[in-house]
Design brief:
single chain; alpha/beta; Cytidine Deaminase, domain 2; five-stranded mixed beta sheet; two-stranded antiparallel sheet; 6 helices; 7 strands; metal-binding; dCMP deaminase activity; hydrolase
Protein backbone atom coordinates (compact mmCIF):
# COMPACT_ATOMS: atom_id res chain seq x y z
CA UNK A 1 0.00 0.00 0.00
CA UNK A 2 1.62 3.27 -1.15
CA UNK A 3 1.60 6.33 1.03
CA UNK A 4 0.19 9.64 -0.15
CA UNK A 5 2.46 12.68 -0.16
CA UNK A 6 2.78 14.52 3.12
CA UNK A 7 0.73 17.73 3.41
CA UNK A 8 2.60 21.02 3.47
CA UNK A 9 2.28 23.13 6.65
CA UNK A 10 -0.16 25.65 5.12
CA UNK A 11 -2.53 22.84 4.11
CA UNK A 12 -2.15 21.11 7.48
CA UNK A 13 -3.03 24.21 9.51
CA UNK A 14 -5.80 25.32 7.15
CA UNK A 15 -7.31 21.82 7.43
CA UNK A 16 -7.34 22.30 11.21
CA UNK A 17 -9.02 25.73 10.83
CA UNK A 18 -11.75 24.14 8.71
CA UNK A 19 -12.24 21.34 11.24
CA UNK A 20 -12.50 23.93 14.03
CA UNK A 21 -15.15 25.78 11.99
CA UNK A 22 -17.44 22.75 12.26
CA UNK A 23 -18.06 23.72 15.92
CA UNK A 24 -19.81 26.91 14.78
CA UNK A 25 -23.60 26.95 14.84
CA UNK A 26 -23.84 29.94 12.50
CA UNK A 27 -26.30 29.21 9.68
CA UNK A 28 -24.77 31.92 7.45
CA UNK A 29 -21.07 30.99 7.56
CA UNK A 30 -18.92 28.73 9.73
CA UNK A 31 -15.48 30.22 10.33
CA UNK A 32 -12.49 28.70 12.09
CA UNK A 33 -9.15 30.24 13.09
CA UNK A 34 -5.93 28.80 14.48
CA UNK A 35 -2.88 30.47 16.00
CA UNK A 36 0.47 28.98 15.02
CA UNK A 37 3.98 29.91 16.15
CA UNK A 38 6.58 28.22 14.02
CA UNK A 39 4.99 24.83 13.59
CA UNK A 40 3.34 24.76 17.02
CA UNK A 41 -0.44 25.07 17.33
CA UNK A 42 -1.23 27.51 20.17
CA UNK A 43 -4.96 28.06 19.94
CA UNK A 44 -8.17 27.51 18.02
CA UNK A 45 -11.47 29.40 17.79
CA UNK A 46 -14.69 29.60 15.79
CA UNK A 47 -17.50 32.10 15.34
CA UNK A 48 -20.55 32.05 17.58
CA UNK A 49 -22.53 33.72 20.30
CA UNK A 50 -20.89 34.39 23.67
CA UNK A 51 -20.66 31.33 25.92
CA UNK A 52 -23.95 30.62 27.72
CA UNK A 53 -26.01 32.76 25.31
CA UNK A 54 -28.35 31.17 22.76
CA UNK A 55 -26.66 31.06 19.37
CA UNK A 56 -28.12 31.84 15.95
CA UNK A 57 -29.30 28.27 15.38
CA UNK A 58 -31.39 28.60 18.58
CA UNK A 59 -32.41 32.27 18.59
CA UNK A 60 -32.00 33.31 14.96
CA UNK A 61 -29.51 35.66 13.40
CA UNK A 62 -29.49 39.23 14.73
CA UNK A 63 -28.94 41.07 11.46
CA UNK A 64 -27.84 44.70 11.33
CA UNK A 65 -27.74 46.66 8.09
CA UNK A 66 -24.92 49.12 7.54
CA UNK A 67 -24.11 51.47 4.69
CA UNK A 68 -20.62 52.38 3.56
CA UNK A 69 -19.53 55.10 1.13
CA UNK A 70 -16.75 53.82 -1.15
CA UNK A 71 -14.83 55.16 -4.14
CA UNK A 72 -15.32 53.04 -7.27
CA UNK A 73 -14.05 54.04 -10.71
CA UNK A 74 -13.72 57.67 -9.62
CA UNK A 75 -17.27 57.88 -8.30
CA UNK A 76 -18.76 57.52 -4.84
CA UNK A 77 -20.93 54.48 -4.33
CA UNK A 78 -23.04 53.42 -1.35
CA UNK A 79 -22.72 49.74 -0.43
CA UNK A 80 -25.21 48.03 1.87
CA UNK A 81 -23.78 45.39 4.21
CA UNK A 82 -25.66 42.94 6.38
CA UNK A 83 -23.97 41.35 9.36
CA UNK A 84 -24.98 39.31 12.35
CA UNK A 85 -24.28 41.17 15.59
CA UNK A 86 -25.01 38.14 17.80
CA UNK A 87 -21.86 36.40 16.63
CA UNK A 88 -18.32 36.93 17.89
CA UNK A 89 -16.02 36.32 14.92
CA UNK A 90 -13.52 33.46 14.98
CA UNK A 91 -10.55 35.86 14.90
CA UNK A 92 -11.98 37.82 17.85
CA UNK A 93 -12.49 34.64 19.87
CA UNK A 94 -8.94 33.56 19.01
CA UNK A 95 -7.58 36.84 20.38
CA UNK A 96 -9.76 36.60 23.50
CA UNK A 97 -8.56 33.09 24.34
CA UNK A 98 -4.83 33.34 23.57
CA UNK A 99 -2.02 35.20 25.33
CA UNK A 100 -0.25 38.20 23.82
CA UNK A 101 3.13 36.51 24.36
CA UNK A 102 1.97 33.55 22.25
CA UNK A 103 0.76 35.85 19.48
CA UNK A 104 4.03 37.76 19.09
CA UNK A 105 5.52 36.73 15.72
CA UNK A 106 2.80 34.14 15.09
CA UNK A 107 0.61 33.26 12.11
CA UNK A 108 -3.18 33.10 12.08
CA UNK A 109 -4.79 30.63 9.70
CA UNK A 110 -8.44 31.49 9.13
CA UNK A 111 -10.99 29.88 6.83
CA UNK A 112 -12.21 33.30 5.63
CA UNK A 113 -10.46 36.55 4.83
CA UNK A 114 -10.90 38.79 7.89
CA UNK A 115 -13.45 41.59 7.89
CA UNK A 116 -12.30 45.15 8.59
CA UNK A 117 -12.93 44.94 12.35
CA UNK A 118 -11.10 41.63 12.74
CA UNK A 119 -8.23 42.84 10.55
CA UNK A 120 -7.80 45.88 12.81
CA UNK A 121 -7.74 43.67 15.89
CA UNK A 122 -5.26 41.25 14.30
CA UNK A 123 -3.07 44.19 13.25
CA UNK A 124 -2.63 45.16 16.93
CA UNK A 125 -2.34 41.60 18.25
CA UNK A 126 1.38 40.93 17.67
CA UNK A 127 0.89 38.46 14.80
CA UNK A 128 3.07 38.76 11.72
CA UNK A 129 1.06 36.77 9.16
CA UNK A 130 -2.53 35.97 8.18
CA UNK A 131 -3.33 33.08 5.83
CA UNK A 132 -6.93 32.67 4.65
CA UNK A 133 -8.88 30.47 2.23
CA UNK A 134 -12.18 32.09 1.20
CA UNK A 135 -12.18 35.72 0.06
CA UNK A 136 -14.35 38.37 1.73
CA UNK A 137 -14.71 40.92 -1.09
CA UNK A 138 -16.72 43.47 0.95
CA UNK A 139 -13.62 44.54 2.92
CA UNK A 140 -10.77 42.97 0.94
CA UNK A 141 -9.20 46.05 -0.64
CA UNK A 142 -8.95 48.14 2.51
CA UNK A 143 -7.90 45.14 4.63
CA UNK A 144 -5.08 44.22 2.24
CA UNK A 145 -3.88 47.85 2.11
CA UNK A 146 -3.86 48.14 5.92
CA UNK A 147 -2.02 44.83 6.37
CA UNK A 148 0.62 45.95 3.87
CA UNK A 149 1.00 49.24 5.72
CA UNK A 150 1.43 47.34 9.02
CA UNK A 151 4.00 44.97 7.47
CA UNK A 152 1.85 41.90 8.18
CA UNK A 153 2.10 39.16 5.56
CA UNK A 154 -1.43 38.63 4.24
CA UNK A 155 -2.14 35.91 1.73
CA UNK A 156 -4.76 33.59 0.42
CA UNK A 157 -3.98 29.90 0.25
CA UNK A 158 -4.53 28.26 -3.09
CA UNK A 159 -5.24 26.04 -4.68
CA UNK A 160 -6.80 24.44 -1.63
CA UNK A 161 -9.67 22.03 -0.95
CA UNK A 162 -11.05 21.82 2.60
CA UNK A 163 -11.00 18.37 4.20
CA UNK A 164 -14.05 16.16 3.77
CA UNK A 165 -15.52 13.78 6.30
CA UNK A 166 -14.28 10.21 6.19
CA UNK A 167 -16.57 7.91 4.19
CA UNK A 168 -16.30 5.16 6.81
CA UNK A 169 -16.60 5.73 10.54
CA UNK A 170 -13.75 4.46 12.66
CA UNK A 171 -14.69 1.52 14.86
Amino acid sequence: MGSSPRKDWDTYFMDIAFMVSTRSQCPRRQVGAVLVQGKKLLGTAYNGAPMGVPDCSEAGCMIAEEYELVQANGAEQVIKKQRCVRTIHAEQNLLLFTDRADREGSTVYVTDEPCWTCANMLANSGITEVVYCRAYPKDSGKVQAMMKQKGIAFRGIGPYSPPTASAEPLV
